Amino acid sequence: MKKKFICIICPNGCEIEVKYSEGEIEKISGNLCEKGLDYVKKELFSPERGLTSSVNLKNGLLPLVSVKASKPIPKEKIFALMDEIADIEVKAPVKIGDIIVKDILGTGADIMATKNVDRKGNFLYQKKEN
Question: Which of 23, 27, 63, 89 could form a disulfide with 19 if both were Cys (CB 3.0 to 4.6 A apart)?
């Protein structure tokens, strides 16, 4: 089989063409460096993606808190992970870096908060009195 890629690893943006079969690359052309070969192998045989989303927040100043996966996750698990995240509700306060779910669906990736959100009634700052 043949497939074309535009490598996103470095600024060159190489247009790479690859011929492959059953888990093996037979021929590759267009890559200016080894990074292109590594990128194509990953995309063909075990693609991963970064994941960002939000989860429901109980008693927070905001109704949601933004989250991300701590590392790229297998592309084929994206929809299952999003379904899992949709059912999550955390209690405020939440701080950047808080682990919301550890090792989600056995991927080795943690779901972590990317925003500070205080709980209702608390203040993120206090006005200085004269």
Answer: 27
- Same domain? For 40 and 11 the reply is yes
What is the count of structural domains for the chain?
2
Mean pLDDT score, 43-58: 96
Vertex 92 angle, CA 50 and 123, to 5°: 115
Q: Which two tokens stand for residue 118?
A: 């205080």
Return d(Cα 52, Cα 57) in angstroms, integer. 16
Mean per-residue pLDDT for 16-26? 93
In a domain, 94, yes or no: yes
Structure tokens, 107: 């991927």
Instruction: Kindly indicate the confidence band of residue 127, based on its pLDDT and cuts at 50, 70 and 90.
Output: low
